[in-house]
Amino acid sequence: MGAALGLLLGIGLLLVWQSTAPPAPPRPRTRLTVRERTREMLAQAGIEAVTPAALLLSCLGTALVVGLALLVVSRSFPIAGAFALIAGWAPAALVRMRQRKRRTELRDLWPEVTDNLASAVRAGLSLPEALAQVGVRGPEPLRAPFRRFGEDYRATGRFAECLDRLKDALADPVADRIVESLRMAREVGGSDLGTLLRTLSGFLREDARTRAELETRQGWTVNAARLAVAAPWLVLLMLSTSPDAVDEYNSGAGLVVLAGGGAVCVVAYRLMVRLGRLPEEERVLR
After folding, report:
1. How far apart are CA 286 and CA 268, in angstroms?
2. Cβ(280)–Cβ(103) under 8 Å?
3. What phi and psi, each to the nearest 5 degrees, are found at residue 22?
4. How far is the C-alpha of 286 from the C-alpha of 283, rounded, in Å?
5. For 222-281, how does the pLDDT look when each residue is reduced to its tens digit (9 = 90+)?
6. In the chain, fewer beta carbons within 10 Å around the N or the C end?
7. pTM reported for the whole predicted model
């Protein structure tokens, strides 16, 4: 009896302490939602005017149009459905392709940006002025975000908030490193910012040169994967005009063949691309 009373007393004291203790800070969210990842992909592709909802609607619209067209031509729901799925993924695939192409192009421009910032800091400009002048003298593809930073800073005078908007507009891991270096220099101070930027510029040039050599050597693997995946579906597209072949695919066995072939193509393509393409640098300083 005494042990039970002691246990109840301990539980009561624990509940009282928990009710008076300060709440634990919320854990930072590290994983992005699908909408946030899509918005970041569009920003990295340089098409910020397109929203994730608009991209989704374009995928659905493309799938609907292609599916109806193949249904009219082939009179086969399985064949039309297969090509509708492929067409529905096409807009997102084009955005990803443009994203990778733009990141490759910008990889050669970031050293020039860091050189401009280092020269501006060495000339005695303030950090906001150094960033704003990149919108005038920097590489042409990167001028617009830095120009908007200058306009935001002149309108608000809030350096930290303007830096956050600049990071969101650039959506690049190299830009994150540059922005956080400038933020730390602004908050903590120090005279080594110019040296840091010049060191970062040299590192970025070496990294871009190394990645370009490796991508040239491994590019054939990715191209071979694309050709291997596209070939059977091109054959199916030609067979869709033959009534005898269409009748075979309209059966249950034909549906199983289409579903199994699609699954094998997806798995094989993902595997070959993962083995043949260099991993992209992730944004760890969001």
Report:
1. 33
2. yes
3. -65, 145
4. 6
5. 788 888 888 889 988 888 888 888 888 888 888 888 899 889 988 888 888 777 777 777
6. N
7. 0.74
